[in-house]
Design brief:
This protein is an alpha+beta fold. It has two helices and two strands, in the order ββαα. The radius of gyration is 21 Å and the shape is elongated.
Length: 74
C-alpha cells in the first residue's frame, strides 16, 4: 500500500442528517481517490483566536460604526 498525506482546512457541511468534509477535486485526482475508496481521516477543530476576533470587530466598528448607526436611525 502506498500512503500519501495532505493537510488542508475544509468546511464541515451538512448532508442529510450527517456531517461531511469534502476532499478537494485536485487532491482527489492527485491521489487517485474515487467514490467508494476508504481513507484515513484525522481532525482538529479550527477556531479563530478570541483576540483576533475582537481585533477584527474593533477595526470593523471603527470603519463602519457611524455608517451603521446612521442606517439604523433612518
Amino acid at each position: 500500500m502506498v500512503s500519501m498525506s495532505t493537510t488542508t482546512t475544509q468546511k464541515v457541511i451538512k448532508v442529510g442528517d450527517s456531517l461531511a468534509v469534502t476532499i478537494p477535486a485536485k487532491e482527489a485526482k492527485r491521489q487517485n481517490i474515487v467514490a467508494g475508496d476508504s481513507v484515513d481521516v484525522s481532525y482538529v477543530r479550527v477556531r479563530p483566536q478570541q483576540d483576533d476576533v475582537m481585533k477584527d470587530y474593533a477595526a470593523f466598528q471603527a470603519q463602519y460604526g457611524e455608517t451603521l448607526k446612521n442606517l439604523a436611525n433612518r
